[in-house]
Specification:
The complex is a heterodimer of chains A (225) and B (111).
Chain A: H1 3-14, E1 19-24, E2 30-33, H2 42-54, E3 58-62, E4 65-72, E5 77-81, H3 87-96, E6 100-104, E7 120-122, H4 126-133, E8 139-143, H5 148-159, E9 165-168, H6 172-184, H7 189-192, E10 195-196, H8 208-224
Parallel strand pairs in A: 5-6, 5-8, 6-7, 8-9, 9-10
Antiparallel strand pairs in A: 1-2, 1-4, 3-4
Helix pairs in contact in A: 3-8, 4-5
Chain B: H1 11-20, E1 25-34, E2 44-48, E3 53-55, H2 63-76, E4 80-84, E5 101-108
Antiparallel strand pairs in B: 1-2, 1-5, 2-3, 4-5
The chains are: A alpha/beta (225), B alpha+beta (111).
């Protein structure tokens, strides 16, 4: 790999730009191809677009031999509503698992740099924050505040988004009340069923870190299975 | 977060940093897998000229051999494709204990 390509690839990753590293296996010739790129040969543009959307690297047959296509998509995103105790280990675990983590909480005493070092903190109200974050199909959303004033607007936005995972902390009783409120707000049972509540895999988690593990495990299961 | 211990997903970033520091650097990438393979296609390992490495192309089964080959490519300047199959633990042969087979591209960072 030429150093120039490595440096550009690193810059694209830092700036969260989707890019494909294409390598011709017969001679090691390499180039970076961007989704918007129209100047490449037609077969390569088509193969790149297929591999990019699958997010899985692959060897493809080209007219001039085998090419290895390695997609570098922007990281998956994890949005946490509520800068509460559970959010502290969950944000760190999410970052370790490769997610770009954003913690949303308008209560600045909770959403503080001291409590969440090196994390992206948003102190807007959840409805505004969610509108700005515009969750896509590569986003997971977890509400953690226990406060309907904060959780509900985020869940409404989450249900209207293609987010691959939606979780809401709270007991069965809390969740039943939440389902009733969302039904009232006009969501169908099928739509509401997208919400994992009570959140997390049932592993008997007690401490905030253990609950974070159960949530992270459920997000992973939803993503990969 | 530039500490390699917390930087396991930052293989290319680490490679670029090593290169900027004046090291010679090689990259190894899983390009194909068959059967039970420990790391998916696209997984990478960056190797520094003093044998320091970050990332992985297997569960630790073949990294030793890949590092040696990576150092060779730094000398020759030419990329290489290596295939690893099932290991024979008794014969101390390099391979994959899990029974899978993988193809790895090893390449120097040039220029």
């Amino acid at each position: 790999m030429e150093r120039e390509i490595l440096d550009r690839l690193v810059r694209d990753r830092a700036e969260k730009r989707a890019v494909m590293l294409a390598t011709r296996l017969t001679d090691g010739i390499q180039k970076l191809v961007y989704p918007s790129d129209k100047s490449e040969e037609t077969w390569l543009i088509k193969a790149v677009s297929e591999v990019q959307s699958s997010d899985k690297a692959a060897v493809v047959a080209g007219p001039d031999g085998e090419w290895f296509l390695n997609p570098f998509n922007p990281p998956l995103r994890l949005i946490l509503i509520g800068a509460v105790h559970i959010a502290q280990p969950l944000a760190r675990m999410g970052a370790l698992a490769g997610y770009d983590v954003t913690v949303v909480d308008p209560r600045t005493s909770f959403a503080s740099e001291a409590r969440f070092p090196d994390m992206t903190l948003v102190t807007d109200w959840p409805d505004e924050a969610m509108a700005a974050l515009a969750p896509d199909a590569r986003t997971a959303i977890v509400t953690l505040t226990h406060d309907p004033k904060l959780d509900d607007p985020a869940l409404v936005a989450a249900l209207r988004s293609p987010a691959f995972y939606i979780g809401a902390l709270g007991s069965k009783k809390t969740h039943a009340a939440r389902v009733a409120r969302l039904t009232e707000a006009g969501f169908t049972a099928e739509e509401i069923a997208r919400i994992h509540g009570p959140v997390g895999l049932a592993i008997g988690a007690k401490s905030p870190a253990e609950i974070a593990i159960s949530i992270m495990a459920q997000i992973t299961e939803t993503l990969r299975k | 977060m530039t500490d390699p211990a917390t930087n396991h997903d930052q293989v290319l970033e680490e490679a670029a940093r090593w290169r900027a520091e004046g090291h010679k650097v090689a990259l190894a990438t899983v390009i194909e897998t068959w059967g039970s393979a420990p790391r998916p296609v696209g997984s990478q390992l960056a190797i520094r000229d003093d044998s320091e490495f970050v990332g992985s192309v297997s569960g630790g089964c073949i990294e030793g051999d890949v590092v040696t080959r990576a150092l060779d490519t730094l000398a020759t300047g030419k990329p290489e494709i290596v295939e690893y199959g099932v290991s024979d633990a008794m014969a101390w042969q390099v391979g994959l204990a899990c029974g899978g087979r993988i193809r790895v591209m090893v390449e120097p960072v040039s220029g």
